[in-house]
Design a protein that fits this description.
Elements: H1 2-18, E1 30-34, E2 40-47, E3 50-57, E4 64-71, E5 76-82, H2 92-98, E6 99-104, E7 106-109, E8 112-115, E9 126-128, H3 132-136, E10 154-160
Antiparallel strand pairs: 1-2, 1-10, 2-3, 3-4, 4-5, 5-6, 7-8, 7-9, 9-10
Length: 162
Amino acid sequence: MGARRHLLLAGLLCTLAATPALAACPQELAVYEGADGSGALEFAGGGAGMLSEMRLLYDGVEPVTVYLSHDETHDRTEAMIPLNCPEGDVTGEELAACLVYQGTVYTIDGDGVGLLPPPGEAAATQVFLPNLLPALWNNPQFGDAAPKEPPAEIFKLSGCQE
């Protein structure tokens, strides 16, 4: 029994060594799962350390692209979900008509609510997208592409893309 226990322990240690430590994962490569079990969130770096977008992933639905921008005035990351926007140059009025969600991306940890870490820094343990549920759930702009379950607003760190 002792040899079997050592084999199991060695296998576990090899598995852990092959998995990148989540704490060392940079924010731009972080992967999250919905805290309530629905959906996932995957960051996609824009190259050269830029944090340009993330994707919301739901079973049976095409990924929903969320565009990120830095609000210089308030020094925070803003998320926008345009849906079925016209191609090419879009006016502010056209963008407003096809924007289904816009809000600040927050983090939640033991100290409370904070702002999203910049690219290159360790990923937040939880990400909070306030009011995402009412913006996406049963939104007619999605048609048949809408999430089948109510979308989560809080996502827990579950992996790293590299």
